[in-house]
Structures are given as structure tokens and as C-alpha cells.
Amino acid sequence: MQWIRDQYAAGIAAKRPVISFELFPPKTEEGERNLLDKALPDLASLKPDYVSVTYGAGGGTQDKTLRIVEQVQKRHQLTTLAHLTCVNATRQQIGGVLNQLRDLGVRNILALRGDPPGNASDFVKPEGGFEFACELVHFIRTQGDFCIGVAGFPEGHIACKAGRQADWDHLVYKVGCGGEFIVTQIFFDNRDFFTFRDYLVKRGVTVPIIPGIIPILSALQIQKFTTLCGASLPAPLLTELKKLEQDEEAAIRFGIEYASRQSEELLREGAPGLHFYALNKARSTREVLRNLGLRPTTP
Length: 299
Hints:
This protein is an alpha/beta fold.
């Protein structure tokens, strides 16, 4: 499997955007079957450069994550980016997970602090573990030749009370600890991404900065999503979504069109790739890529 850092280097040299998708382990066995038997093959047919798989708090979905990673790599022959968090885990436990991933052939890790588990409002450092993602990045760097990605927040991390520039300064340090590319949280105003990117570049960051895109499925879904992650919905976008609350199909079509326009501008302004939060569904991501002329127009 390829190093993701090499994928971005090759894409930038060829002026070809790197396309990636994010999946999450479903909570039910039926959901996992639907993902592995339908959604994953559909997404794999779009030939992404890599697929990322999220990781539950405290390893809550660890076994499912590893099963999905194995399917992505062995069955579909796609490079995988496995998420890894600091939540409820000691150094020894994290080291064990890294060994499991290495045995599966995974060489790319997205290092995250992770969200507080359950209904906790604040992150608590696990005994024998890590408090910050930068510590996790440094630890992974000592555990072998992994390619390490880190998360960025164009509007600032929801937990950073000091403001977005303070959060971005933390990201600069995190990259300095060994982060080799940045994947952002979702955003809906591209100006937020451009301001974020330009700040990092002025601070000397040279690694690829990849915008995270989510094709909206419904007003209710995206409002819940943004509340959890701290992203904001521009007023004109929210107004349009309110009009479509009772028409699911129209909301999906609107989400595809909005994500297409957003992605088109990002690529035109130099983004080296697009990272799609696919929500374990293929349709919207497929249609956005078709609109951008990045994948075949046939089903």
C-alpha cells in the first residue's frame, strides 16, 4: 500500500487532485453488512486514492475499525488511513493497536486527540496516556515508519477557548512533531479554509492541507453534525435548507450541488485534494465527482 505523503507529492507534481473518502464503523451488525457489502464496493468503484476509517472513543469500535480496514485493503486493494485517538488509552494500548495495524499492512495513521467519551464536556487525560494529539504524533513517530496525518479546523477547534488562531498555532506545532499532511474538519464557507490555509503557510507549514467536504443530506442531519463539530452554517445556506426540510430528495440534490460548487472553487484555488465525509453512502460523493469531471459519468 502507498504512503499517503507520496500520493500527495505525486498528485501535486501531476496537477491532479488526490481524492479520499471517510467511513465510520456502524453501530449495528446490519449497518456493518450494508457498509461492507454495498456502500464500500460502490465507493471503491470510484477509485479513491485512499480511504480513511474512524476510530471509536476508547477503542469503542476498535474491532469493527480493524475489520473495515482489512476489507478496504485486502478486498478492494485501496490504501487506508486508520484513525487513532488518545481517548481512554494508555501508551501501551496505543502501541498494541499500532502493532495490529502494522500486521494488517496499514502504514498511514490520522493522529487525533479524540472527543470526550459519552456525555463528558471536557477531555480528561487517561492515566498512562496522552493529553494532546501532538504527543500522540510524536509517539507514533517512535513506533516505526508510519505516515502520519493530523486534523485541522478552519474555524478553530470547538474546545479551544482561546480562539481559532491559537488553535492554528497548536496545529503548526503538531505538524512540527511529525504531521505529514493535514485533513480539515468540514466547513461551508470557503473563505474560512483560505484564511486558515494562508495563516499556516505564513507560519511556515509546507505539508499538504486538504479540505474536508460533506455533501449535505438533510437540514436536520447537518445541523446535528455542525453542533457536534463546531462548524457554522452560513445564513443563506441555512435558509435554503429550511425550505427543503420536508423534501429529502430535494435536500440531497441541493447538497450535491452545493458541495460541487464548493469543491470546484477549492480546486481552482490550489487545494491539492478533496477529502469527502461520505457518511457510509456512495451516491452524493459519486455525483459530486461526476460534476467535477473527476470520475466516469457512467454508473
